[in-house]
Design a protein that fits this description.
By secondary structure, the chain is of the alpha/beta class. Helices cover 31% and strands 15% of the residues. The protein has a 5-stranded parallel β-sheet. A 4-stranded parallel β-sheet has the order 3-2-4-5, with helices on both faces. Strands 1-13 form a two-stranded antiparallel ribbon. Helix 3 links the parallel strand 2 and strand 3. The structure holds N-carbamoyl-L-aspartate. N-carbamoyl-L-aspartate binds next to helix 3 and helix 7.
């Protein structure tokens, strides 16, 4: 969209969203307030036509469930229309079309484009050729900025519900820190808060990339030699799946010896019972997967489905910001849906799961 590298442009109206480094703290907090205000739309207590006539193109060239569907649901809940294509097979990229040409073509049909692609930097390349704003839905092992926004939104609300704040908090980040793009975006976003500390654990082949330790606030990153050590004094743990699809070296994959990354017993023995447990999902539930185990699901601090629910609100807020819509304008276009006359269609536990943290 600009002659400058798009990633350095601050986030706001008409901007691309490519990286969490585009944010300052006031912009993040304003986005979170907007997400709070949009919650009745996310719960379908209100329906809205503010995006009537607006078109989102959703291009996903890697597997996705929650990211694609929550982006599309967010646009639809605001009253817009979604065009979607998944995988290379059914797109002209299978015929050798470049990202440049794809961007130029699709921006002629859309008002915003969301793309996920296996190559780091590919979404920025699309943005450079696009005539409309582009949102990064994950670029290889690079970044996943909207996931980080919903993760930090959830963390602020979970901590807030326990009378704590992100400022000064300790977050354990465990699993695949090398290829996990959500981790890269999360660390860069949380750095905006004073006093935040990270305790990192990964198998030695999956360590956080060197560049994170070259920054002037690298003293906030503490590399730990076990999950137990990483959990010491942590307010929250953020676990990640091994990104096997990005590991080309079989030796690296084999070097992961343990079969369990984090389970209920570890949380209860090594951390506070109320530890906030986060994960971008999907978790790999196959035997020996080295991931977050399902037995954590009855822990009081489980926040993984709060994250997925919150993704809808945060992505609505992202679209509203890009399109220059404030909350008052959106709500002026909202009304009670005729198909939802007051009786909740959503079963209890979905949008208000667990403790009261969801009911801000
Ligand atoms: C993540 C991703 O795609 O990077 N998933 C997601 O978008 N919620 C994490 C992962 O796939 O492990």
């Amino acid at each position: 969209m600009t002659s400058q590298p798009s990633a350095v442009r601050p986030f706001g109206p008409q901007a691309d969203l490519l990286s969490t480094t585009q944010f300052d703290l006031p912009t993040v907090l304003a986005l979170f307030d907007l997400a709070d205000g949009l919650r009745p739309l996310g719960r379908a207590e209100l329906t809205c036509d503010v995006l009537q006539g607006a078109v989102l193109s959703s291009l996903f060239f890697e597997p996705s469930t929650r990211t694609r569907l929550s982006f599309e649901s967010a646009w639809a809940r605001l009253g817009g229309t979604v065009l979607t294509t998944t995988g290379f097979t059914f797109s002209s990229m299978a015929k050798g079309e470049s990202i440049h040409d794809t961007a130029r073509v699709i921006s002629g049909y859309s008002d915003v484009i969301v793309m996920r692609h296996p190559d780091k930097g590919s979404v920025a390349e699309l943005a450079d050729a696009s005539l409309v704003p582009v949102v990064n839905g994950g670029d290889g092992a690079g970044e996943h900025p909207t996931q980080a926004l919903l993760d930090v939104y959830t963390l602020t609300r979970e901590l807030g519900a326990r009378g704590r704040a992100v400022e000064g908090a300790t977050v354990a980040i465990i699993g695949d820190l090398r290829y996990g793009r959500t981790v890269h975006s999360l660390i860069d976003l949380l750095r905006l808060w004073k006093g935040i500390r990270f305790r990192l654990y990964s198998p030695s082949s999956l360590e956080l990339p060197r560049e994170f330790f070259d920054r002037d606030d690298a003293h906030r990153l503490l590399v730990c030699d076990s999950v137990q050590d990483a959990l010491k004094g942590a307010d929250a743990v953020y676990a990640t799946r091994v990104q096997r699809e990005r590991i080309t070296d079989e030796k690296v994959a084999q070097a992961i010896e343990a079969s369990v990354l984090l389970d209920k017993r570890m949380v209860q023995e090594w951390a506070s019972d109320d530890l906030i447990v986060m994960h971008p999902l999907p978790r790999d539930s196959r035997p020996g997967s080295f991931d977050l185990m399902p037995d954590v699901d009855d822990l009081p601090g489980l926040a993984i489905f709060h994250q997925t629910d919150n993704g809808l609100m945060v992505r609505m807020a992202i679209f509203c910001t890009i399109l220059g819509l404030d909350l008052a304008t959106v709500l002026a276009h909202a009304r009670r849906p005729v198909w939802n006359s007051g009786k909740p269609l959503v079963r209890p536990g979905l949008h208000s799961a667990g403790r009261q943290a969801q009911d801000w």
